Q: What sequence folds into this?
């Protein structure tokens, strides 16, 4: 006898008698996907430019992505928001980033409807929709959609992946992480990597393994149940970490410089048809030093930086290939709708010289060629946190101008591949229709014949703002349905409408020409002047790479486009326009727990993210550990904050009490006790006394005197001429009893867990803090 089922919320269709033999059962209907429904796989790359994938003309090997393109579709007019979190919010909701309150990254949130950083629940995620239609839902890799003050173990968890419709999650919650010592979250809790770097660990390999295991776990139980996997690599965002053998594959390939890269990529793009044949290559960027003017040492370092980046991307492609091979092996590949996208253009955050330690920039410590040369052989390895010079950024966005964080096409035009053998007849074709990240969700829903829900979990849903491009799958000549799209990122504005684009660059067409740097504040009088004099106009239907500014020739059209930008801005919560970048972090915002003068940490707990942790820099403070030392002694970390690129650690080693302050991997200030820590219960203490003023402009935090105490007795002292001014290492939080990531002191093996008992570690910061807007700015931009 077949089971009788009924939809939950409707009347029970069975019979309820006084006893079971005269009753008839019926069961609440389980949610099931339609027979033959395809799997959905989104592959989101990070900071990968239009001209950096092989099938988009790059001299970089990406055979697996190229294979998807050869058997699927490439779109040459896909657009993003110019920054990571905003784009990701568009991908998952089908709404514009200001509608998602994600004007910038959440770390730069301000208290306005379009920028507070809390994605509204009325903007449902694709995961939430597909969960209601019988899909398994998995998120793997980068997230960066949760307000930073909500990423600690105190929650709340409703904006973590499992709170937004994903059944499983494995990855990192923030903007970036160390590829060898990542800050990993598994579902709703922190975990350590399964291996160490010396055992072959790399994050990309790990997240591919986990994506495969999530899918396999479900398929072995319910082989006909489809999945949605949101797979987001940490690559190719900095740090550009990759095993040496991958970088060495490109030895000498970039010795001819960034202009040569552009010329090669541009020529190949035309051969492939990925750009129109009449496209002109954009100008030489005024911020980029000509390769011919670089010294031999500069060329040596810069070329190696690009070799490492290229190896990083090829390594990423290889491991994506493992995921694709798994789908083929289990017979799911042909009926998986795959969409591959980069979240924005290539990143210029390495600056003109590149970096061996991005934390130098965030602490206002200048890069030097001499220091970078010393570390050239370590690029790509776990001891550095490297990013290439922005000449490669400019080249990576060929044929366009500029880069990530700006709304010229170099920041917003990205590679986009669609592959679905069972649903798309066309193979190896290029699509020219205008599409945007907000169009991905509507397209998936149309492909699945699913209507957007009226409500999710009882929350009425807002209208979708994207439009489906499913009609282009098998019709290369289909008309674009996406006619108008605004852009705004940190004051940089533009708008598209039916083949035209107007752009109002901020702070200017380049930093050199503007005479100022990224993130300059924009005031009302500045905005008025920009609107009156500085909008540019491009007919991108004919001028693909925005080379010919028609503002003077077409004033009426320009006025129309400017007015349209303001209409769209009003519609989608874009105002107020804010040109500030990191300074936004000074905005007061709600916290899970307010700042206080005393923080208590416990052994065996999860790392506390920097944004919710105690702040000891540039202020008097003390660290007191109440411990129990077993017979024979103990060693290990008492308290740590940061990683090998900057931070501090209070610890016991060789029987002695010690403290080390790693100043951005340039200098380590160390102090040790003059005797050993005896067995039994003891109070171990470190005190920092500020002895002078910080010099933030020179990248030096407050000088001070560090003292060690055992049971109140002074046992060690050090004078520190300077300390970290702004930001600890970019991937380590505060942890009692272990290193959560890369060890702060190189000779100590992670996690260097304390072998005794720590009852509490108390950090007192009742002393006055020396604040700096630049400090806050740099610390928060580290999270982009």
A:
């Amino acid at each position: 006898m077949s089971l009788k089922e009924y939809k939950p919320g409707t009347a029970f269709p069975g019979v309820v008698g006084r006893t079971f033999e005269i009753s008839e059962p019926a069961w609440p209907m389980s949610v099931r996907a339609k027979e033959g429904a395809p799997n959905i796989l989104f592959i989101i790359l990070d900071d990968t430019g239009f001209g950096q994938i092989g099938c988009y003309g790059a001299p970089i090997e990406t055979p697996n992505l190229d294979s998807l393109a050869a058997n699927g579709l490439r779109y040459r007019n896909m657009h993003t928001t110019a920054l990571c979190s905003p784009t990701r919010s568009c991908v998952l909701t089908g709404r514009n980033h200001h509608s998602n309150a994600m004007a910038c990254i959440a770390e730069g949130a301000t208290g306005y409807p379009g920028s507070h950083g809390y994605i509204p629940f009325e903007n449902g995620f694709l995961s939430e929709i597909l969960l209601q239609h019988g899909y398994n839902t998995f998120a793997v890799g980068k997230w960066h959609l949760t307000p930073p003050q909500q990423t600690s173990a105190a929650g709340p968890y409703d904006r973590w992946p499992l709170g937004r419709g994903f059944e499983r999650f494995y990855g990192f919650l923030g903007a970036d992480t160390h590829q060898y010592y990542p800050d990993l979250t598994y579902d709703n809790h922190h975990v350590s990597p399964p291996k160490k770097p010396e055992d072959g660990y790399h994050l990309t390999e790990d997240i591919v393994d986990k994506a495969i295991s999530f899918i396999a776990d479900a398929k072995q139980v319910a082989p006909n149940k489809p999945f949605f996997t949101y797979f987001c690599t940490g690559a190719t965002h900095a740090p550009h970490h990759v095993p040496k053998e991958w970088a060495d594959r490109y030895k000498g390939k970039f010795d001819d410089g960034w202009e040569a890269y552009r010329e090669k990529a541009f020529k190949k793009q035309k051969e492939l048809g990925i750009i129109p044949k009449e496209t002109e290559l954009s100008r030489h960027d005024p911020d980029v030093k000509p390769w011919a003017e670089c010294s031999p040492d500069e060329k040596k370092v810069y070329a190696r930086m690009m070799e490492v980046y290229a190896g990083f991307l090829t390594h990423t492609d290889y491991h994506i290939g493992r995921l694709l091979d798994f789908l083929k092996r289990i017979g799911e590949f042909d009926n998986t709708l795959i969409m591959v996208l980069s979240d924005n253009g290539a990143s210029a955050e390495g600056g003109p010289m590149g970096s061996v330690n991005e934390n130098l920039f965030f602490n206002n410590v200048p890069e030097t060629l001499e220091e970078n040369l010393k570390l050239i052989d370590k690029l790509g390895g776990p001891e550095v946190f490297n990013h290439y010079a922005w000449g490669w950024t400019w080249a990576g966005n060929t044929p366009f101008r500029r880069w990530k964080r700006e709304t010229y096409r170099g920041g917003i035009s990205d590679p986009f591949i669609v592959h679905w053998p069972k649903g798309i007849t066309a193979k190896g074709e290029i699509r020219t229709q205008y599409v945007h990240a907000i169009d991905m969700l509507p397209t998936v829903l149309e492909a699945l014949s699913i209507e957007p829900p009226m409500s999710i979990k009882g929350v009425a849903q807002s209208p979708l703002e994207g439009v489906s491009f499913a009609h282009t799958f098998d019709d290369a000549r289909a008309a674009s349905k996406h006619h108008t799209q605004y852009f705004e990122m940190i004051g940089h504005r533009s708008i598209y409408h039916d083949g035209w684009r107007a752009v109002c660059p901020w702070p200017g067409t380049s930093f050199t020409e503007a005479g100022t740097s990224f993130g300059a504040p924009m005031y009302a009088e500045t905005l008025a002047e920009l609107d009156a004099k500085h909008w540019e106009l491009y007919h991108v239907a004919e001028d693909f790479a925005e080379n010919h500014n028609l503002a003077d020739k077409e004033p009426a059209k320009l006025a129309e486009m400017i007015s349209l930008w303001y209409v769209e801005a009003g519609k989608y919560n874009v105002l107020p326009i804010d040109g500030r970048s990191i300074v936004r972090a000074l905005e007061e915002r709600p916290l899970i727990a307010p700042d206080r003068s005393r923080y208590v940490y416990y052994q065996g707990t999860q790392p506390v993210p920097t944004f919710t942790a105690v702040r000891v820099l540039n202020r008097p403070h003390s660290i007191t550990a109440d411990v129990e030392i077993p017979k024979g002694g103990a060693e290990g970390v008492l308290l740590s904050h940061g990683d090998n690129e900057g931070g501090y650690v209070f610890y016991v080693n060789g029987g002695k009490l010690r403290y080390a302050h790693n100043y951005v991997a340039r200098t380590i200030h160390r102090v040790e006790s003059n005797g050993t820590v005896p067995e039994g219960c003891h109070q171990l203490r470190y005190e920092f006394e500020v002895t002078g003023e910080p010099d933030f402009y020179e990248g030096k935090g407050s000088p001070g005197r560090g003292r060690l105490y055992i049971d109140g007795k002074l046992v060690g002292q050090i004078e520190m001429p300077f300390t970290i001014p702004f930001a600890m290492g970019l991937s380590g939080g505060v942890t009692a009893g272990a290193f959560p990531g890369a060890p702060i002191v190189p000779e100590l093996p992670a996690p260097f867990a304390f072998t005794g008992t720590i009852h509490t570690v108390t950090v007192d910061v009742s002393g006055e803090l020396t604040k700096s807007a630049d400090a806050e700015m740099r610390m928060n931009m580290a999270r982009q």
User: Anything to note?
Assistant: Residues 500 and 540 are 5 Å apart (CA to CA). The chain has three domains: 39-480, 487-580, 598-781.
